[in-house]
Design a protein that fits this description.
CATH superfamily: Class I glutamine amidotransferase (GATase) domain
Radius of gyration: 15 Å
Helix content: 25-40%
Low-confidence stretches: none
Strand order of the largest sheet: 5-2-1-6-7-11-10-12
Strand content: 15-25%
Number of helices: 7
Order of helices and strands: EHEEEEEHHEHEHEEEHHE
CATH class: Alpha Beta
Structural class: alpha/beta
CATH architecture: 3-Layer(aba) Sandwich
Distance between the termini: 22 Å
Amino acid sequence: MKRNVAILVFEDAEVLDFAGPFEVFAVTSQLNEGRYFDVGLVAADRSPVRAMNGMTVVPNWTWQRMPAPDVLVVVGGLGSRRAMTDAPLLAWVAQAAASAEVVLSVCGGARIVGALGLLDDRDATTHHQVFDELQAIAPAARLRRDARVVDAGRIVTTGGISAGIDGAFHVVSRLLGEPVAQRTAAYMEYRWDSGCAVAAASQT
């Protein structure tokens, strides 16, 4: 089964939040004859998006013109503060998350999924500077300040920035098996610790 991986981008998104998971999912597919994932950046339209510190990217897909995502990646960065109050963006994320197999929240992307109530009654993590803010946004979330990756069923959350790479490897391992993820990590010369993810029990 080939899965669509949609990585949400917006103004002032953190670069490694989207570039790291993009690389993990795309290289996994590359190493396996393109069988596993179609990976793309998605935004409201295909206009260039200026990410944190000036990097500009052009989305592959728009909200209205893309296949339904099987894996939805919601990234952070300073722009996530604006994004969590953007009604059209929230409506699209809510719709995409409802049918996605996995939602991967990276860093401050937890603000967005938290604003939608997707972290209620779940264990979750985020960037170490966002915990107090996230607790106010999603008071029913159970924040794991000690965790780099938290697997709470359909919702997987990660700590800050580089932790999104670990989160993406965890999702690949969950969907395709650890040997597939380890092969990608070896190719990328990335020291992925498969034990860095905390499994939260009895969450769907």
